[in-house]
TrEMBL record:
Residues 67-91 are annotated as: Disordered. It comes from Aegilops tauschii subsp. strangulata. GO terms for cellular component: chloroplast; cytosol; mitochondrion. InterPro entries: Aa-tRNA-synt_II, aa-tRNA-synth_II, aa-tRNA-synth_II/BPL/LPL, Lys-tRNA-ligase_II, Lys-tRNA-ligase_II_N, Lys-tRNA-synth_II_C, NA-bd_OB-fold, NA-bd_OB_tRNA. PANTHER family: LYSINE--TRNA LIGASE, CHLOROPLASTIC_MITOCHONDRIAL, LYSYL-TRNA SYNTHETASE. This is Lysine--tRNA ligase. Keywords: Aminoacyl-tRNA synthetase, ATP-binding, Ligase, Metal-binding, Nucleotide-binding, Protein biosynthesis. It catalyses: tRNA(Lys) + L-lysine + ATP = L-lysyl-tRNA(Lys) + AMP + diphosphate. The keyword Nucleotide-binding applies. Residues 258-598 form the Aminoacyl-transfer RNA synthetases class-II family profile domain. The keyword Ligase applies.
Length: 604
């Protein structure tokens, strides 16, 4: 549109005084509290002086128990500050509730049904960036909506910053361009945090700030609670996770993480579809928790009068789809494991599992590289990325090395040389330096094979050193119950795990299709689980630790074994952790940073 140039009149009488009623009342409250505290302090000093004149020597005695319960001054100050903050919050809420009543009394509804927008803030910033300072584009008619995140009042002029999903822009509200009723409403009823709709023309101020020159506005949602402090933001990490909505308002960059996450999931789907895979859905509630070794969540179905498990993997049902005739399938879904919480673990997390008939684990290595590099290019535009100060190169091909070789490189010990498990355990104790009574040593003692001992050493010594993308190949058969035996090396399987930054990102193998071998593996897995459970029962655990990680039952999935007896084609499969991939691509230190609403401890 054509733009007519006009200059903003300068008003030398404009003063830097806020007209916000919240601010005035809160200032009065603070002054009242301060004067009250001063009076109390003066009275206590006078009382102390009087007591000092009456008793030259004042000895105070208290028992150790009483002394222990006395709160240090900093605790009292912290409690007092928290109490004051809560009181301020309640006061602001009361003020704003009053405003809601007054607005309705004047015939305005502070919780609107809709607002017709013509542009986003980003679109306006891009379209009108060419305007000169002081220029007004009177031909432009725009309408925007968003949350007010800043407000400054100067007599007959009010500036506000409005934020929507795409960015921010300034609202230039001049008394002469609004009705008297609207301008008074602007000064008396609008607070930071309110969601506003505004329409008008476009101007660039004398200082070069692109603005909507407001001719009409409407309160779309009246905010009752104050936003976090403008300068300090929301810094309480626990509160950020518990109240993610506040975190996203106070720290707009947090929303970028979730936008990136959405791009990653979208790019994964595009990649899978480009290779001819179809997306399917499998049950979350299952009769047996199979496909992995993990403690499940248990629930109860009242109508069926039976216990069910939240799935710990999607694997076994996806393989049933291969038996049924689908040759390339995948599922992106939530997985639930009733285990510990850390920067790498959340009880519910998202994975993609994929299965391809007539392929082996070499195919899955190539597909893993394809998925991760495509996601990196879609989100960062490059294959060399920074993660917590370390440069990670995703350029292909990635390193491929066997577990035995990596352990030997790190320790100098070749575990292929051990003929019995006890010799392997003794070597591992020397390498790991476990104390006899430690829980780690108990876990080592519960190992029933050389393969289990090798895995313990790998997880403790090697895993954290795998910073650049690495495929760890050929795991022992004892710890890989669903993988096909290695076609060249006895005692190993055709399995790999993908590690980046010391974290497992993916797990894959050439799938076991022999139903008799599969049944035998499952039965051995149950025996091993029960042996570990018995070993842990002998150890006195701290009450604060609760049940140990093996205190659950493992059962055979008879229906899956039946499906294999009908015949499953040779296939490979892989699971990739989407949360950890997003952590890598967004430079996030904790898994809680990439899950919008992570599971947390109960708030005391």
């Amino acid at each position: 549109p054509s733009c007519k140039t006009t200059k903003t009149p300068r008003n030398s009488k404009i003063t830097n005084a806020s007209t916000c009623s919240d601010t005035r009342l809160m200032e009065a409250l603070r002054v009242w509290r301060a004067s009250f505290n001063l009076l109390g302090f003066a009275a206590s000093r006078a009382a102390a002086a009087s007591a000092g004149r009456a008793h030259r020597f004042h000895i105070r005695c208290c028992s150790p128990a009483a002394a222990a319960t006395t709160k240090p001054p900093q605790d009292r100050r912290r409690r007092s500050a928290s109490s004051s903050s809560t009181s301020d919050r309640d006061s602001i809420r009361a003020i704003r509730l009053k405003k809601v009543e007054e607005l309705r009394g004047k015939g305005y509804e502070p919780y609107a049904y809709k607002w017709d927008r013509t542009h986003t803030t980003k679109e306006l910033q891009e379209r009108y960036t060419h305007l000169e300072n002081g220029e007004v584009c009177t031909e432009a008619s725009v309408s925007i909506a968003g949350r007010i995140v800043a407000r400054r009042a100067f007599g007959k002029l009010v500036f506000m910053t409005i934020r929507d999903d795409s960015g921010t822009i300034q609202l230039y509200c001049e008394k002469d361009s609004l009705t008297e009723e609207q301008f008074e409403q602007l000064k008396a009823f609008i607070d930071v945090g309110d969601i506003l709709g505004a329409s008008g023309s476009i101007k660039k101020t004398e200082k070069g700030e692109l603005s909507v020159y407001v001719s009409f506005f409407e309160i779309l949602t009246k905010s009752l609670l104050p936003l976090p402090d403008k300068y300090h933001g929301l810094t309480d990490v626990d509160k950020r996770y518990r109240q993610r909505y506040i975190d996203m308002i106070a720290n707009p960059e947090v929303a970028d993480v979730f936008r990136t996450r959405a791009k990653v999931v979208s790019e994964i789907r595009k990649t899978m579809e480009s290779f001819g895979f179809i997306e399917v859905e499998t049950p979350v509630l299952q009769g047996e928790a199979g496909g992995a070794e993990a403690r499940p969540f248990i629930t109860h179905h009242n109508s069926l009068q039976r216990d069910l498990y939240l799935r710990i993997a999607t694997e076994l049902h996806l393989k049933r789809m291969l038996v049924g005739g689908l040759e390339k399938v995948y599922e992106i879904g939530r997985i639930f494991r009733n285990e510990g919480i850390s920067t790498r673990h959340n009880p519910e997390f998202t994975t993609i599992e994929m299965y391809e008939a007539y392929s082996d684990y070499e195919s899955m290595m190539n597909l893993a590289e394809e998925i991760v590099t495509r996601c990196a290019m879609a989100t960062t535009g490059k294959l060399k990325i920074d993660y917590q100060g370390t440069e990670i190169s995703l350029e292909r091909p990635w390193r491929r090395e066997t577990m035995h070789r990596l352990v030997e490189e790190a320790t100098g010990v070749d575990f292929n040389s051990f003929g019995d498990v006890e010799s392997a355990k003794n070597a591992a104790k020397g390498l790991l330096g476990f104390k006899t009574e430690s829980s780690e040593n108990t876990s080592l003692q519960a190992c029933s094979s050389v393969g289990h001992v090798l895995n313990e050493v790998f997880e403790t010594v090697v895993e954290s050193t795998l910073v650049q993308p690495t495929f760890v190949l050929d795991y022992p058969v004892e710890i890989s119950p669903l993988a096909k035996p290695h076609r060249r090396y006895a005692g190993l399987t055709e399995r790999f795990e993908l590690f980046v930054c010391g974290r497992e990102i993916g797990n894959a193998f050439s799938e076991l299709t022999d139903p008799i071998d599969q049944r035998s593996r499952f039965e051995n897995q149950i025996k091993q689980h029960n042996a570990k459970r018995a070993a842990m029962d002998k150890v006195k655990l701290d009450e604060s630790k609760g049940d140990d990680e093996y205190s659950y039952e493992v059962s055979l999935d008879e229906d899956f074994l039946t499906s294999l007896e009908y015949g499953m084609p040779p296939a490979s499969g892989m699971g990739l952790g989407i949360d950890r991939l997003v952590m890598l691509l967004t430079n996030s230190a904790s898994i809680r940073d990439v899950i919008a609403f992570p599971v947390l401890k109960l708030q005391q």
